[in-house]
Each structure stands twice: as C-alpha cells, then as structure tokens.
Amino acid sequence: MIKLDFNTAILNLDDTEAKDTDESTVMMYKHVGNHLANFTDTDDPLKFYQFATDIYKNRAVEIDKSDYDKIYAFYKGNKKLPPVIRGQIMQQMDSCKEKSEKSDKKK
Predict the structure, then answer these.
(1) 9 burial class (0-12, 13-18, 19+ CB within 10 angstroms)?
(2) Is residue 33 a contact partner of residue 61, using CB atoms and an 8 Å limit?
(3) How many domains does the chain have?
(4) 3-state SS assignment for residue 86
(5) What is the domain range of residue 57?
(6) Strands 61-63 and 2-4: what pairing?
(7) Which residues contact 12 (CB under 8 A, 6 or more apart)?
(8) Residues 64-89: pLDDT tens digits?
(9) Number of helices and strands (H, E) in the chain?
(10) N or C, which end of the chain is more exposed by having fewer CB within 10 Å?
(11) Is the pLDDT of residue 107 over 80?
C-alpha cells in the first residue's frame, strides 16, 4: 500500500507559496481532492469519491499500486492542468511512494 499525503502548499516558480485571491495559501490537498472528485477513469467511483473527500479534508489515504498508477497517469496526461500544478502533485506522489516503499522494507 502507498500512503498519499498532500498536506503541502502549491509553490510558485520562485518557491514561494502560491496565494489564492483571499491571500490564503493554496494547498495541494484541495486541488487533488477536487481533481479526484471529477476523476472518471475508474470502475469504482465510490472508492475514488472516498479518496477525494478524505484528501480534500487533508487526510492521508492508503491506496494500492493499481490506483496509484491510475491517479499518476491522470496527472501525467492531463493537458488541462498547467505543469506547475501537475508536476508538483506528481513529485509529491513520487515522494509518498518512496516513503511507503522504505517503510515497507523496514517491516
């Protein structure tokens, strides 16, 4: 299982935290939760709805490799999202996967 945690800010190109119109920090978990709520490449919409709501509420989720690959492919191929957003989400997913693999090896 891979534990995904998106509790991090979206960064601008100069590594400053991106700000919303109300000057609040743009958090990655809000983006990912919203994206997964609209994810259509699944045979299990209930599971992805649960992922979306948990992530949107800033909760880490544990997913299997197959679901990880689907979500990763969604971001990799999503031409509607700018690279500055999807690249950071993909990097966070890579980081979470590496941490999960290291944790599994210690068991």
Answers:
(1) middle
(2) no
(3) 1
(4) helix
(5) 2-13+24-99
(6) antiparallel
(7) 18, 84
(8) 999 999 999 999 998 889 999 999 99
(9) 4, 2
(10) C
(11) no
Domain membership of residue 19 (yes or no) is no
Scanning the structure block, which residue is given the tokens 């944790």?
A: 103
Is residue 8 within 8 Å of residue 92, measured between CB atoms?
Answer: yes
**Are the C-beta atoms of residues 96 and 5 closer than 8 Å to each other?**
yes
Note whether residue 35 is domain-resident. yes
Q: Is the pLDDT of residue 31 over 90?
A: yes
71 with 93: CB under 8 angstroms? yes
Whose structure tokens read 């490799």?
Answer: 65
Average pLDDT over residues 3-22: 95
In a domain, 69, yes or no: yes
Domain contains 107: no
> What type of residue sits at position 8?
T
> Given this model, what pLDDT does residue 103 score?
82
